[in-house]
From TrEMBL:
It comes from the Bacteria. Belongs to the GPN-loop GTPase family. Signal peptide: none annotated. This is ATP/GTP-binding protein. Pfam families: ATP_bind_1 (PF03029). InterPro entries: Gliding_Motility_GTPase (IPR052705), Gpn (IPR004130), P-loop_NTPase (IPR027417).
Amino acid sequence: MIFGRSQRGKPPVEPVTLKILVAGGFGVGKTTLVGAVSEIRPLRTEELLTEAGRPVDDVSGVEDKHTTTVAMDFGRITLREDLVLYLFGTPGQERFWFMWDELSEGALGAVVLADTRRLEDCFAAVDYFERRSIPFLVGVNCFEGSARYPAETVRQALDLDAQVPLMMCDARDRESVKELLVGVVQHAMAQAADRRRVVTT
């Protein structure tokens, strides 16, 4: 770049920035997802799990987890020259849910991560976004050693509306996470277009 203009003589593109939330239960992979795809070093607010928190932090199924997000994770990814996503990972434990309202302000949509070993842990996130009419999709994080179920079986177990997308994913894999993010942007845009059609008819 030279004096704010590209070397080809074209003015720089001012990208559209969109806010996406990454939600789900405790230990489902939200911090891993943000870190896998962020083009900047992610901002993390993790603390060590302690004995004092043992009665409220259920680590069954994720016994190797030693830290937890206490505020949020933040990352950024450029999908195209003119489209940048800001990612906000929400805290998973119930005692930090008061922060969700602040984090969801101005969000285009959300990814709800689900773990088939602890599927009930994502019910609260699904309910939250449904109640606030925030577009979301469910990403089933396929952990090693966990049972694999057909997408329709997971959809029925979560009692998802037919229009809510559900995708299998690996929160450690950049390309897999990018597919999720593209999916939630497309879903949010489609819902916005549907609302406009209803208003104009």
